[in-house]
Write a structure and sequence with these properties.
Chain lengths: 462, 314
């Protein structure tokens, strides 16, 4: 048995309120009245004790300094492209999981657009085997339709029996509303029969209206001479899926919202009591279509970067709980892919290593120079950890309160560290980051997964 | 001037300077011996990833008349078709020691990207729907030749503005030089947003025709029909084509301009194309001195003075 003790940190979890980040950043000394030590065990994978001066009581335990840091449940990503099987030239589960651990993640949902895609028990088994090399938990998501063809349902029941809870064809959006309706009904039936809560998740994009758009349709696409994808392409499917949730009583998760209109639609759906949840990517909370002006394909995302008004609405949606989760949709590209012209390059950005650091400044006064409201730290941490854990059905071991007997999946975050992210030195095999070269404030110091310190002082341990 | 990527990057003073320099080079073009040694020892690469006989020939002549060495690289005969990345191609070209790369590409933004991968000066010879700055300069020069200045002139740009790099560059340049620009065309062919554009929009060509100093017609491409942007070329001609009837309503001193190649019988009737007011060939003729001016400003050493006697001396 190897014990580790996290010392002198400020605990924040679903049961412990967050301090004001500005106060925490400016205080040079840890305030002993608000800090606790956390003792974890890597054999049982659980928290053994939470209290004062646990380091002194357990001299045999490996100490991890958390002075001046937040100690939070490890983050949970509702969707990342991990490259395996099929796209190993871009990423592997091992490299992606290292980036994830460095970013404070304890669990990452593996999106099903692999080759072959995750529409069979065999691929789920392969993912589980590959995940043994991972530094954090890898949670397979199932394809919603066979071969992600948008026509024939994937074996939701069989995959559910293997523990798969979230089904999506992402990054594709199922175009046929009839198929989505049947998927919701069928998944609800499986859930009723087995007691397993299944979630139908959908990337919202009407392909016909999106056309050949390569960025947000608006003043910048007009100026740059690039075909645009209108906000309506997203909002139309958001509207449809909310209506289908109403019709079927099914459980829908809307992925990667990017427009103010989508936020308003989801807010109204939740007020109505529909079983709808939603996520947003970090980039859509901080970048806009104006950032595409240099024609750098690393800024080409799917959905595309939108306007400052959309960014403000997404932040407000995160703050008031309309948006449940931040999901990276970490999308590694092969080496030369982003050296193509903007309109020809594939969309997407890596994001596991930077998500928290990119968003943490939004929770302090310095984070909203553009007039958008400040994001409460609690809302941000909830959206990065316990709320996505609940959506993915991982609440038994992720995102829970930091208490003895609970799974020891923890991230220790130093909110004051200033650093510069260089994609070339990312742990991810890919370098296509929309935040390459960006100066960031706040960094994960330690990550503990199932009681094992996989990141210590910002260094991956394996 | 380090590169020429977009007319957005040019101030009114930059435009005026380039047009003055163009006038000087145009004078040299009127001489018996048209070549000057301004860029002797410099190497210019024509990197045409998209076919363009007109623009390439014009740049080629401009570079040669400045005594630069010219290498032509076109996608059809290059390794680009073998899957080499754009970056590899450009790094390979610039490793050979070139001073300027004149680039034409079907994708918007490629010239801008190139500047990140090469030390050579980059001149945009047309990128996607984005910009075609030397076309705008030669258009300005042509208008200035006729009217003395663009100040206060009323110019209609008519047709497929959204898919036109010429329109984007012209709008910037014309308005910076004091002209008033009105965009005319079906809503489907105008940009999805005109926020921040210093233009007016007029859906009816006949409503503005009689007041124009310049009617600038853009080429209509057959492929626009396939994406539900237009019902037919016939309907386009009826509503937006410069027909013989419309030509009769144009002021006698107005100019008819077109970036070429023209679709006679679609956006312009043969009578209009051959009318005295059509200055399409003047535009083409202005292309060489404009591109000489641009090449000279971008890679000229500044030691060469445009002494009237020097042309003959060379």
């Amino acid at each position: 048995m190897t014990l580790t003790v996290i010392t002198g940190g400020r605990l924040v979890d679903p049961n412990r309120a967050a301090p004001a980040l500005d106060v925490l950043q400016s205080s040079t000394e840890a305030d002993p009245a608000h800090t606790l030590d956390v003792l974890v065990d890597d054999v049982t994978g659980t928290v053994v004790a939470v209290g004062a001066d646990l380091a002194a009581a357990h001299p045999d335990a490996r100490p991890l300094d958390a002075a001046g840091c937040l100690v939070v449940p490890a983050l949970v990503d509702l969707g990342a492209h991990l490259g395996q099987p099929g796209f190993e030239q871009a990423e592997t589960i091992e490299t992606a999981s290292r980036a994830a651990a460095l970013g404070g993640y304890g669990a990452v949902v593996a999106l099903p657009d692999t080759d072959p895609c995750t529409d069979s028990a065999a691929v789920v088994a392969e993912l589980r085997a590959l995940a043994k090399a991972a530094l954090c938990e890898i949670v397979p998501a199932g394809a919603l339709t066979h071969g992600r063809d948008g026509v024939v349902l994937a074996p939701l029941g069989e995959l559910s029996d293997l523990g798969v809870r979230l089904f999506t064809d992402a990054p594709r959006s199922v175009q046929d509303g009839g198929v989505v309706r049947r998927a919701l009904e069928y998944a609800a039936g499986v859930a009723d029969a087995t007691g397993a809560p299944l979630v139908v998740a959908q990337r919202c994009r009407a392909d016909d209206l999106a056309g050949r758009g390569v960025m947000h349709e608006g003043r910048w696409s007009a100026r740059l001479g690039l075909p645009g994808e209108p906000a309506l392409a997203e909002e139309l499917i958001v509207t449809r899926e909310i209506a289908l949730a109403r019709l079927t009583g099914g459980r829908v998760h809307l992925q990667q919202l990017s427009t103010a209109g989508s936020v308003a639609l989801v807010r109204a759906a939740k007020a109505e009591g529909l079983r709808v949840t939603a996520d947003v990517a970090p980039a859509h909370l901080v970048l806009t279509d104006a950032d595409c002006a240099g024609f750098d394909p690393n800024l080409k995302l799917d959905p595309p970067l939108r306007t400052p008004a959309d960014v403000a609405a997404l932040r407000a949606g995160l703050a008031d709980g309309t948006i449940d989760a931040v999901a990276t949709f970490h999308r590694p590209c092969p080496p030369d892919a982003k050296e193509l012209p903007f309109d020809q390059a594939p969309a997407g950005s890596i994001g596991l290593e930077t998500a928290l650091a990119v968003l943490l400044p939004l929770a302090s006064d310095g984070g909203a120079p553009d007039g958008a409201g400040k994001l409460p730290l609690e809302a941000l941490l909830a959206a990065l950890s316990w709320q996505p854990a609940a959506v993915a059905g991982l609440g038994d071991r992720h995102g829970g309160p930091i208490e003895p007997g609970r799974a020891a999946n923890l991230a220790v975050v130093d909110p004051a560290t200033r650093w510069r992210f260089e994609a070339a030195s990312s742990a991810s095999r890919a370098t296509n980051s929309c935040f390459d070269g960006r100066r960031l404030t706040g960094r994960v110091r330690h990550t503990v997964v199932a009681g094992e310190p996989v990141v210590i002082d910002g260094e991956a341990q394996r | 001037m380090r590169h020429l990527l977009s007319t957005e990057d040019l101030s009114p003073a930059d435009l005026a300077d380039l047009l003055d320099l163009t006038a000087n080079f145009a004078d040299i073009q009127a001489r018996d011996i048209k070549k000057v040694p301004a860029l002797r020892g410099k190497t210019v690469v024509m990197a045409f990833f998209e076919d363009s006989t007109r623009t390439r020939t014009s740049f080629d002549l401009a570079a040669r008349r400045l005594s630069a060495d010219v290498v032509t690289f076109s996608a059809g005969s290059s390794s680009v078709k073998k899957g080499e990345s754009l970056r590899d191609t450009v790094e390979t070209i610039s490793a050979m020691g070139v001073d300027a790369i004149v680039v034409r590409h079907a994708s918007s933004g490629v010239p801008r990207r190139l500047t990140e991968w090469t030390d050579a000066a980059v001149i945009n010879a047309g990128d996607g729907w984005h910009q075609h700055p030397t076309q705008a300069l030669l258009d300005c020069y042509t208008i200035q030749q006729r009217f003395g200045s663009l100040e206060g002139r009323r110019i209609a740009i008519c047709g497929d503005v959204n898919h036109s790099r010429v329109a984007r560059s012209d709008i910037d340049a014309f308005t910076k030089l004091g002209a008033e620009v009105v965009l005319v065309g079906p809503r489907t062919l105008l940009p999805p947003s005109l926020e921040g554009w210093p233009v007016k929009v007029e859906p009816d060509l006949d409503a503005v025709l009689g007041d124009l100093d310049v009617v600038y017609l853009l080429r209509i491409q057959q492929e626009r029909l396939g994406s539900a942007l237009l019902p037919s070329l016939r309907e386009y001609r009826a509503r937006y084509g410069l027909t013989r009837q419309r030509l009769a309503r144009l002021r006698p001193d107005a100019l008819v301009m077109h970036p070429g190649p023209m679709n006679r019988g679609v956006e312009i009737d043969p009578e209009a194309a051959d009318d005295d007011r059509a200055v399409v060939l003047d535009q083409v003729a202005a292309g060489v001195p404009v591109r000489m001016a641009v090449l000279y400003r971008v890679i000229g050493t500044g030691q060469f003075e445009l002494d009237p006697s020097e042309g003959e001396a060379a």
